[in-house]
Write the structure tokens for this entry.
Amino acid sequence: MSNKITIIGAGQVGSTIAFALTIKQLASEIVMIDIAKDRAMGEAMDIRQGTPFVGPVSIHDGDYEDAKGSDIVVVTSGVARKPGQSRLDLAQINVDITKTIIPEITRVCPNALYVIVANPVDILTYQFVKTSGIPADHIFGTGTMLDTARFRARIAETYKVAQENVHGYVFGEHGDSSFVPWSLANIGSVPVEKYAAALEGIKAPDLNKDDVEDYIRKSGGIIIAAKKCTNYAIGITTTHLCEALNYTTDSVLTVSTMLTGEYGIDDVCLSIPAVIGRKGITGRVVAPLLDSEVASLRHSAECLKDVIKQIKF
């Protein structure tokens, strides 16, 4: 597969993404860029030495000039979230870091698709759209893809079914104002709320929506408190997104994109299902939500806009 991917940031998240991309053979060339050049060199070298057992992937460290010709640029650079710190607390610090990255990478990769991973992902995606000069349909954050994976994993654990049988999404901010539109969630085409009652011969627990949404919002903090970072799930999530960008058919994913009137929301980046593929974002799915769910989405948008007002881009 001829596909060049540049990863900016060789920390825990960036290196895990590089490793996952290599294992899945989703790129013919991977460039790792970091201000800590020794770290980028070491991570690339460590992964590269395992490629004889994987496949012909060229993975190496480099500078911005080495990113030329990249099909995808993944941005993970930023200060990591500390225990007890919200994603939005990081906003100005990581916005300032991204300010230094945008002109350098867009100069050499004007035609790439940009995947924003660093937090707060919705704010940094907004910054990229507003200041980079790259077309908005080529810029998207991982958004609530990870939250959606956590949702599906939790429902699958609760009902002891395979994760691929659980369908549903988390909408809004990748953060505290995210929410599950339960009206869209189902297990094998049966609404999640009615699944236990639909089972025959199997005793299933009652659904506790608050517990599920609490699990989604607090998982990152729990993991950070335990191991000081989150890297595997977001690494797999980002790799899945990069894989979708290689398909000839589009995928529907909850990436963070600039809304332009959907649900009465504009001038903010957050997650609703988007149609995405080799050409970037080709459309959005405006799913039929309950009035209460639309209100939750608008609340999430306002939470992000309140932060945007306080940021110097």
Notes: The chain has a mean pLDDT of 94.
